[in-house]
Amino acid sequence: MRLDKFLADCGIGSRSQVKNFLKKKLVQVNGELEVSPKRQINEQSDLVTFAGRLLKHESFVYYLLNKPKGFISATEDNQHRTVLELLDETARQKQVFPVGRLDIDTTGLLLLTNNGPLAHAMLSPKRHVFKVYQAKVAGLMTAEDVEAFSQGIELKDLDCQPAELQILETDQTSQTSLVHIRIAEGKFHQIKRMVASRGKKVVELKRLSMGPLTLPKDLPPGHYQRLTGQDLADLSGFQVDL
What we know:
Residues 1-66 form the RNA-binding S4 domain. Belongs to the pseudouridine synthase RsuA family. Its EC number is 5.4.99.-. GO terms for molecular function: RNA binding; rRNA pseudouridine synthase activity. By secondary structure, this protein is α+β, with helices and mostly antiparallel strands. The chain has 3 domains: 3-54, Structural Genomics Hypothetical 15.5 Kd Protein In mrcA-pckA Intergenic Region, Chain A, CATH 3.10.290; 62-125 and 213-238, Pseudouridine synthase I, catalytic domain, N-terminal subdomain (Alpha-Beta Plaits, 2-Layer Sandwich), CATH 3.30.70.580; 131-210, 2-Layer Sandwich (Alpha-Beta Plaits). It is built from 7 helices and 15 strands. The strands form 3 sheets. Strands 5, 8, 9, 10, 11, 12, 13, 14 and 15 form a 9-stranded mixed β-sheet that branches. The chain is elongated, with a radius of gyration of 22 Å.
Protein backbone atom coordinates (compact mmCIF):
# COMPACT_ATOMS: atom_id res chain seq x y z
CA MET A 1 0.00 0.00 0.00
CA ARG A 2 1.20 3.52 -0.79
CA LEU A 3 2.13 5.55 2.25
CA ASP A 4 -0.17 8.47 1.35
CA LYS A 5 -3.17 6.10 1.14
CA PHE A 6 -2.24 4.55 4.46
CA LEU A 7 -2.08 7.96 6.13
CA ALA A 8 -5.38 9.05 4.58
CA ASP A 9 -7.04 5.80 5.70
CA CYS A 10 -5.86 6.53 9.23
CA GLY A 11 -7.72 9.84 9.14
CA ILE A 12 -4.65 12.07 9.13
CA GLY A 13 -6.03 14.12 6.24
CA SER A 14 -6.77 14.14 2.54
CA ARG A 15 -4.19 12.93 0.01
CA SER A 16 -3.08 16.53 -0.63
CA GLN A 17 -2.85 17.28 3.10
CA VAL A 18 -0.86 14.11 3.68
CA LYS A 19 1.69 15.13 1.05
CA ASN A 20 2.24 18.41 2.90
CA PHE A 21 2.74 16.53 6.17
CA LEU A 22 5.35 14.35 4.49
CA LYS A 23 7.18 17.44 3.15
CA LYS A 24 7.22 18.84 6.70
CA LYS A 25 8.93 15.61 7.84
CA LEU A 26 6.19 14.65 10.28
CA VAL A 27 6.06 11.00 9.21
CA GLN A 28 8.37 8.14 10.11
CA VAL A 29 8.36 4.56 8.84
CA ASN A 30 10.07 2.04 11.09
CA GLY A 31 11.85 4.84 12.92
CA GLU A 32 13.14 6.66 9.84
CA LEU A 33 11.85 9.91 8.32
CA GLU A 34 9.93 9.43 5.08
CA VAL A 35 8.96 12.19 2.63
CA SER A 36 7.76 10.22 -0.39
CA PRO A 37 3.99 9.59 -0.69
CA LYS A 38 4.76 6.75 -3.11
CA ARG A 39 6.63 4.70 -0.51
CA GLN A 40 5.19 1.19 -0.41
CA ILE A 41 4.52 -0.16 3.06
CA ASN A 42 3.01 -3.22 4.68
CA GLU A 43 0.09 -1.87 6.70
CA GLN A 44 0.19 -4.92 8.97
CA SER A 45 3.88 -5.03 9.88
CA ASP A 46 5.48 -1.62 9.23
CA LEU A 47 5.44 0.90 12.08
CA VAL A 48 4.24 4.30 10.88
CA THR A 49 4.15 7.35 13.14
CA PHE A 50 2.74 10.82 12.55
CA ALA A 51 4.12 13.61 14.74
CA GLY A 52 5.33 10.93 17.11
CA ARG A 53 1.98 9.10 17.29
CA LEU A 54 1.85 5.46 16.22
CA LEU A 55 -0.85 4.89 13.59
CA LYS A 56 -3.05 1.86 13.08
CA HIS A 57 -4.56 1.18 9.68
CA GLU A 58 -8.36 1.01 9.54
CA SER A 59 -10.27 -0.77 6.81
CA PHE A 60 -13.65 0.39 8.07
CA VAL A 61 -14.83 3.60 9.70
CA TYR A 62 -18.08 4.53 11.44
CA TYR A 63 -19.66 7.96 11.89
CA LEU A 64 -22.76 8.79 13.88
CA LEU A 65 -24.54 11.82 12.41
CA ASN A 66 -27.32 13.93 13.91
CA LYS A 67 -29.13 14.47 10.63
CA PRO A 68 -30.85 17.86 10.23
CA LYS A 69 -33.84 18.62 8.02
CA GLY A 70 -33.23 19.40 4.35
CA PHE A 71 -30.75 16.60 3.62
CA ILE A 72 -31.45 13.23 2.03
CA SER A 73 -29.91 9.92 3.05
CA ALA A 74 -27.97 9.26 -0.14
CA THR A 75 -24.44 9.53 -1.48
CA GLU A 76 -25.39 11.74 -4.44
CA ASP A 77 -28.44 13.51 -5.81
CA ASN A 78 -29.04 16.10 -8.53
CA GLN A 79 -31.84 17.94 -6.72
CA HIS A 80 -31.18 17.78 -2.99
CA ARG A 81 -28.28 18.11 -0.60
CA THR A 82 -27.06 14.78 0.74
CA VAL A 83 -25.85 13.86 4.21
CA LEU A 84 -22.33 13.36 2.82
CA GLU A 85 -22.13 17.14 2.33
CA LEU A 86 -22.14 17.44 6.13
CA LEU A 87 -18.86 15.50 6.39
CA ASP A 88 -15.39 16.96 5.99
CA GLU A 89 -13.10 15.88 3.15
CA THR A 90 -11.25 13.34 5.28
CA ALA A 91 -14.49 11.56 6.20
CA ARG A 92 -15.92 11.68 2.66
CA GLN A 93 -12.83 10.13 1.12
CA LYS A 94 -13.52 7.02 3.18
CA GLN A 95 -16.39 6.35 0.74
CA VAL A 96 -18.94 6.00 3.51
CA PHE A 97 -22.67 5.70 2.89
CA PRO A 98 -25.76 5.99 5.11
CA VAL A 99 -27.06 2.80 6.71
CA GLY A 100 -30.75 2.95 5.85
CA ARG A 101 -32.55 6.20 5.23
CA LEU A 102 -34.31 9.06 6.93
CA ASP A 103 -36.79 11.23 5.03
CA ILE A 104 -35.63 14.69 4.02
CA ASP A 105 -37.69 16.26 6.84
CA THR A 106 -36.78 13.63 9.44
CA THR A 107 -33.93 14.33 11.85
CA GLY A 108 -31.78 12.35 14.24
CA LEU A 109 -29.48 9.37 14.34
CA LEU A 110 -27.93 8.18 11.10
CA LEU A 111 -25.00 5.78 10.88
CA LEU A 112 -22.52 6.22 8.02
CA THR A 113 -19.88 3.59 7.26
CA ASN A 114 -17.95 1.91 4.48
CA ASN A 115 -18.62 -1.53 5.99
CA GLY A 116 -21.11 -3.12 3.60
CA PRO A 117 -21.62 -6.39 5.52
CA LEU A 118 -22.42 -4.48 8.72
CA ALA A 119 -24.92 -2.25 6.90
CA HIS A 120 -26.58 -5.31 5.39
CA ALA A 121 -26.78 -6.98 8.79
CA MET A 122 -28.34 -3.93 10.46
CA LEU A 123 -30.94 -3.55 7.71
CA SER A 124 -31.80 -7.22 7.34
CA PRO A 125 -35.45 -7.94 8.28
CA LYS A 126 -34.27 -11.18 9.89
CA ARG A 127 -32.24 -9.24 12.47
CA HIS A 128 -35.23 -7.27 13.84
CA VAL A 129 -33.07 -4.25 14.63
CA PHE A 130 -35.21 -1.93 16.75
CA LYS A 131 -35.37 1.79 16.06
CA VAL A 132 -36.87 4.40 18.39
CA TYR A 133 -38.38 7.63 17.10
CA GLN A 134 -39.72 10.70 18.81
CA ALA A 135 -42.71 12.21 17.04
CA LYS A 136 -44.73 15.35 17.50
CA VAL A 137 -48.25 14.54 16.39
CA ALA A 138 -51.15 16.75 15.36
CA GLY A 139 -53.94 15.11 17.32
CA LEU A 140 -54.29 13.47 20.71
CA MET A 141 -52.89 9.95 20.89
CA THR A 142 -54.89 7.65 23.17
CA ALA A 143 -54.71 4.33 24.97
CA GLU A 144 -56.62 2.86 22.02
CA ASP A 145 -53.78 3.94 19.74
CA VAL A 146 -51.25 2.30 22.06
CA GLU A 147 -53.19 -0.95 21.85
CA ALA A 148 -53.54 -0.73 18.06
CA PHE A 149 -49.77 -0.27 17.67
CA SER A 150 -49.09 -3.24 19.95
CA GLN A 151 -51.33 -5.44 17.81
CA GLY A 152 -49.72 -4.34 14.54
CA ILE A 153 -51.09 -1.58 12.32
CA GLU A 154 -52.67 -2.74 9.07
CA LEU A 155 -51.92 -0.47 6.13
CA LYS A 156 -53.23 -0.78 2.60
CA ASP A 157 -50.10 -2.49 1.31
CA LEU A 158 -48.39 -3.56 4.53
CA ASP A 159 -49.21 -5.39 7.73
CA CYS A 160 -46.85 -3.75 10.20
CA GLN A 161 -45.25 -5.79 12.93
CA PRO A 162 -46.30 -5.01 16.52
CA ALA A 163 -44.78 -1.73 17.67
CA GLU A 164 -44.49 0.14 20.95
CA LEU A 165 -46.20 3.51 21.26
CA GLN A 166 -45.41 5.53 24.38
CA ILE A 167 -47.36 8.72 24.97
CA LEU A 168 -45.05 11.23 26.64
CA GLU A 169 -47.46 14.13 26.81
CA THR A 170 -50.62 15.56 25.27
CA ASP A 171 -51.69 19.20 24.98
CA GLN A 172 -55.42 19.80 24.97
CA THR A 173 -55.00 23.43 23.96
CA SER A 174 -52.92 22.80 20.84
CA GLN A 175 -54.39 19.33 20.28
CA THR A 176 -50.92 17.81 19.87
CA SER A 177 -49.06 14.84 21.32
CA LEU A 178 -45.42 13.94 21.92
CA VAL A 179 -44.72 10.22 21.60
CA HIS A 180 -41.98 7.64 21.30
CA ILE A 181 -42.45 4.84 18.76
CA ARG A 182 -40.33 1.70 18.71
CA ILE A 183 -40.38 -0.44 15.56
CA ALA A 184 -38.32 -3.30 14.12
CA GLU A 185 -39.02 -2.35 10.50
CA GLY A 186 -38.26 0.67 8.37
CA LYS A 187 -40.58 0.79 5.39
CA PHE A 188 -41.10 3.96 3.36
CA HIS A 189 -42.86 6.61 5.49
CA GLN A 190 -43.84 3.83 7.90
CA ILE A 191 -44.09 5.89 11.10
CA LYS A 192 -46.05 8.65 9.36
CA ARG A 193 -48.41 6.14 7.77
CA MET A 194 -48.98 4.25 11.01
CA VAL A 195 -49.93 7.45 12.82
CA ALA A 196 -52.08 8.56 9.89
CA SER A 197 -54.01 5.29 10.07
CA ARG A 198 -55.13 6.40 13.54
CA GLY A 199 -56.47 9.69 12.24
CA LYS A 200 -53.53 11.86 13.31
CA LYS A 201 -50.54 13.40 11.53
CA VAL A 202 -46.81 13.42 12.28
CA VAL A 203 -45.52 16.99 12.08
CA GLU A 204 -42.01 16.36 13.42
CA LEU A 205 -40.02 13.14 13.48
CA LYS A 206 -36.63 12.38 15.02
CA ARG A 207 -34.78 9.05 15.30
CA LEU A 208 -33.29 8.54 18.75
CA SER A 209 -31.73 5.11 18.43
CA MET A 210 -30.96 2.26 16.05
CA GLY A 211 -29.94 -1.10 17.46
CA PRO A 212 -27.24 -0.51 20.09
CA LEU A 213 -26.59 3.09 18.99
CA THR A 214 -28.20 6.06 20.72
CA LEU A 215 -28.13 9.68 19.60
CA PRO A 216 -25.97 11.68 22.05
CA LYS A 217 -27.90 14.52 23.65
CA ASP A 218 -24.93 16.86 23.21
CA LEU A 219 -24.49 16.22 19.46
CA PRO A 220 -25.99 19.23 17.61
CA PRO A 221 -27.97 18.80 14.37
CA GLY A 222 -25.64 18.66 11.38
CA HIS A 223 -22.70 17.44 13.47
CA TYR A 224 -21.19 13.98 13.62
CA GLN A 225 -18.66 11.94 15.57
CA ARG A 226 -16.60 8.84 14.98
CA LEU A 227 -17.64 5.70 16.76
CA THR A 228 -14.99 4.25 19.04
CA GLY A 229 -14.67 2.13 22.14
CA GLN A 230 -17.93 0.83 23.56
CA ASP A 231 -19.98 1.82 20.52
CA LEU A 232 -17.82 -0.39 18.29
CA ALA A 233 -17.98 -3.16 20.86
CA ASP A 234 -21.78 -2.96 20.78
CA LEU A 235 -21.81 -3.16 16.98
CA SER A 236 -19.67 -6.30 17.13
CA GLY A 237 -22.84 -8.09 18.23
CA PHE A 238 -23.81 -8.18 14.57
CA GLN A 239 -20.98 -10.70 14.08
CA VAL A 240 -19.28 -8.98 11.15
CA ASP A 241 -15.68 -7.88 10.80
CA LEU A 242 -15.26 -4.40 12.27
